[in-house]
């Protein structure tokens, strides 16, 4: 049984591969598995697309992080290599590529090298379900939200593996902290996504986006008055913790743990963790955009002349624009707020975020029941 | 972590208070960073080799010791030697001489820049304001002789 998700590009390949293969000589025709070849081509297209979409934003994000952080701290950031330091990252990557990757003495070599390979799995799988534009989506799963939650749970595995296999007490403490943190914050992360699923009436990201079509007040952040905004803020808080980013970066708190679970990694193995961190940032911003900021819909304001111009811009531009706005918010958080202690972090989740999120869920039901959602 | 016993009502009161004051303090912090972010004029980084022409050091910057001179090159030094005494590194030698009237005046003001730490004690010690700390900082050189300087151009007037 071959997987077949309905999609214009996929259907095009499935239709045309048998036609192209028909030109081959007749005597090998019965032996050609054309349906399988079509699936293989589709799989390769999907993999290449996801790899490009996943890795292409990372240099932009790292450059942006450096610049945002510098401007917040009244500095200029990288300025020397290339105009405004845009080539700095190329130099960094070249340096990482030429460094030797080695495991410390006493490390579990197999797990140690497995962790940086695993770490990229979760963010790439998450990217598969995100609709960048009407048809720019690998798979419109009907269970996209549970899928994302499951994949985020999978993402912690590499952190635990890396920390455990490094044979370093800092790495071990860091990975255990990270595990505890993700297990706690996953709950409120799931709660917020469930709220969106409840409001939109579907767990498929395509349909969640479709439920926000129209003007900009039809996005879920505004469509459910006050509730949407609160939910968006809660999403930002819990996803920052999910991303292991500052202010919730107790997993790699430099001052306490010398860098955390990737202390012992160097060269490309370290670059994998770095890459995964930023792909995760991008993916989570994408989810925020889809769930709260209307996905690829243009922010039309109800005046026909302006709306026509706004609708003329391709959806992917709006999508990436919104995504990078969310990324910028995450960066402002990172360079503004101070890191809580471990116990404060747990108290915030179990004593504040979880009760508030449960309340939001209840209010979501009330809003739906009384029809307080904007038409 | 306080260990004092409090009633449930008091606990809930504190909890709700924190729920408001916490986000408020976060917003205060965020407003500061936002102001910095959208205000590029606040950036203090100097692009040094590029802005060599326009670079202006702060007034309190202490470079090398220079002699205060008027437009004719006359200095205010009386060769009293207070700076020489104040210098912790013996970087200053004030060589006095006698002028035609037989009065003690400044002959040569020797300044060993190589051992100077630019502490500025000599400037503070000078009772006549004859020396001050300069603004220059590009003094790298290949020979130690370049750091042996004579500061005064003319003999002191006494």
Q: Would you give an account of this structure?
A:
- The complex is a heterodimer of chains A (375) and B (158).
- Chain A has helices at residues 8-21, 34-55, 57-72, 88-98, 109-118, 121-128, 144-165, 169-200, 205-210, 220-223, 227-242, 254-257, 267-292, 304-312, 315-336, 342-370.
- With 375 residues, chain A is an all-alpha fold.
- In chain A, helix 3 crosses helix 15 and helix 11 runs antiparallel to helix 16 (342-370).
- The mean pLDDT of chain A is 84.
- Chain B is of the alpha+beta class.
- Chain B has two domains: 8-42; 65-150, Alpha-Beta Plaits.
- Chain B has three helices and five strands.
- In chain B, the strands form two sheets. In chain B, strands 2-3-5 form a three-stranded antiparallel beta sheet, with no helix packed on it. Chain B has a two-stranded antiparallel ribbon with strand order 1-4.
- The radius of gyration of chain B is 29 Å and the shape is elongated.
- The model of chain B has no long low-confidence stretch (mean pLDDT 85).
- At the A-B interface, helix 3 and helix 15 of A face helix 1 of B.
């Amino acid at each position: 049984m071959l997987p077949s998700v309905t999609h214009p590009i996929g259907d095009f390949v499935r239709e045309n591969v048998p036609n192209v293969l028909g030109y081959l000589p007749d005597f090998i025709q019965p032996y050609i598995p054309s349906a399988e070849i079509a699936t293989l081509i589709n799989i390769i297209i999907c993999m290449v697309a996801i790899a490009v979409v996943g890795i292409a934003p990372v240099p932009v994000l790292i450059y942006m992080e450096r610049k945002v952080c510098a401007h917040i701290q009244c500095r200029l950031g990288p300025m020397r290599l290339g105009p405004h330091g845009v080539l700095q990252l190329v130099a960094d990557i070249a340096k990482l590529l030429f460094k030797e990757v080695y495991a410390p003495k006493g490390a579990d070599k197999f797990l140690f090298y497995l962790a940086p390979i695993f770490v990229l799995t979760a963010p790439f799988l998450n990217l598969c379900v995100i609709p960048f534009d009407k048809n720019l989506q690998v798979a419109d799963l009907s269970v996209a939200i549970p899928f994302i939650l499951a994949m985020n749970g999978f993402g912690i595995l590499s952190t635990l593996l890396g920390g455990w296999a490094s044979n370093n007490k800092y790495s071990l403490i860091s990975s255990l902290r990270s595990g505890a943190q993700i297990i706690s914050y996953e709950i409120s992360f799931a709660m917020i996504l469930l709220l969106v699923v409840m409001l939109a009436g579907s767990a498929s990201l395509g349909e969640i986006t479709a439920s926000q079509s129209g003007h900009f007040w039809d996005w879920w952040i505004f469509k459910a008055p006050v509730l949407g905004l609160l939910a968006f803020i809660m999403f930002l808080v819990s996803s920052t913790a999910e991303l292991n980013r500052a202010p919730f970066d107790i997993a790699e708190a430099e001052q306490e743990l010398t860098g955390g679970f990737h202390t012992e990694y160097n060269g490309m193995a370290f670059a994998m963790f770095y890459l995964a961190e930023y792909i995760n940032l991008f993916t989570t911003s994408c989810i925020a955009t889809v769930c709260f900021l209307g996905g690829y819909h243009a922010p039309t304001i109800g005046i026909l002349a302006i709306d026509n111009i706004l609708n003329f811009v391709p959806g992917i531009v709006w999508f990436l624009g919104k995504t990078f706005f969310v990324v910028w918010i995450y960066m402002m958080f990172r360079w503004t707020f101070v890191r809580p202690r471990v116990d404060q972090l747990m108290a915030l989740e179990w004593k504040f975020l979880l009760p508030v999120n449960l309340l939001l869920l209840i209010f979501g039901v009330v809003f739906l029941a009384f029809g307080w959602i904007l038409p | 972590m306080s260990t004092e016993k409090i009633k449930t009502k008091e606990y809930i009161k504190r909890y709700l208070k924190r729920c408001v004051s916490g986000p408020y303090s976060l917003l205060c912090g965020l407003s500061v960073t936002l102001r910095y972010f959208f205000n590029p004029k606040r950036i203090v980084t100097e692009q040094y080799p590029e802005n060599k022409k326009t670079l202006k050091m702060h007034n309190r910057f202490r470079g090398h010791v220079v002699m205060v001179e008027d437009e004719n090159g006359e200095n205010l030094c009386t060769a009293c030697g207070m700076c020489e005494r104040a210098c912790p590194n013996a970087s200053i030698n004030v060589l006095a001489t006698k002028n035609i009237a037989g009065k003690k005046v400044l002959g040569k003001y020797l300044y060993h820049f190589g051992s100077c730490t630019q502490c500025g004690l000599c400037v503070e010690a000078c009772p006549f304001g004859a020396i001050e700390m300069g603004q220059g900082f590009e003094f790298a050189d290949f020979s130690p002789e370049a750091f042996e300087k004579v500061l005064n151009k003319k003999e002191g007037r006494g």
